[in-house]
Prior knowledge:
By secondary structure, this protein is of the alpha+beta class. The chain has eight helices and five strands; from the N terminus they run αααααααβαββββ. The protein is elongated and about 75 Å long. InterPro entries: Homeodomain-like_sf, HTH_CenpB_DNA-bd_dom. Pfam families: HTH_Tnp_Tc5.
Amino acid sequence: MSAKRKSYSVEYRKGIVEKSHNKNLTSFCKEMLDRRMVRKWRAEYDKLNRQGDEGSAKKRKCRSGRQPLFSELEDITSGWIADKRTKALVVRRFDIQEFALAMAPQLDIPPEIFKASPHWLDSFFRRYELSLRRSTTLFKLGDAEVIQRALAFKSFVDGIDFSKYSLSNIIAMNETTVFTGQGSKTTIEQTSTSSIYASPAGYEGASVTCISAIRLDRTEVPPFIIIKG
């Protein structure tokens, strides 16, 4: 039988990081804690502080309502989703249900009590402010930067003296990436996140770049295909 996974609260992890500050990690952990785990908590200390503040705010906001029956399981599931999205991996509703069902026995939650039903999943989404989101383009650029780049390009074009060039030497080009697989364009993400990137995996991530162009004298240019390899 596999060992049950231990779960530590945000406050406990913060306390361990604070107690181990400026101390030798090997002697501090001894046989009670995993050094790799404590080292990870140290690196995530700022994130733990934010989680603690957000958790306190949620408790104050929801203290009069019904509390979730599986709060520990939901915390672990929420962390798993956050880890997946940090790596830009796609997370689907089915993935969350599958993970929660696999994790429940390790927290002594009987399968006849917890079934990861669609109703539970919807409630979980509301509690953790999650939703199904569509992948966005230019995910690394904010609105201000997009506008700045567009204006800079227009300024560049306005400064060109087109009378110096033959129409046959001026080409309008379009470059498009075509994925060989379907790829998922949606993923579970925080509702407050403005830019969403879903990285396709394996065969779905393979792509070619297609370039089509035409000269200003309306002469067609043969298409050009770039294959990565």
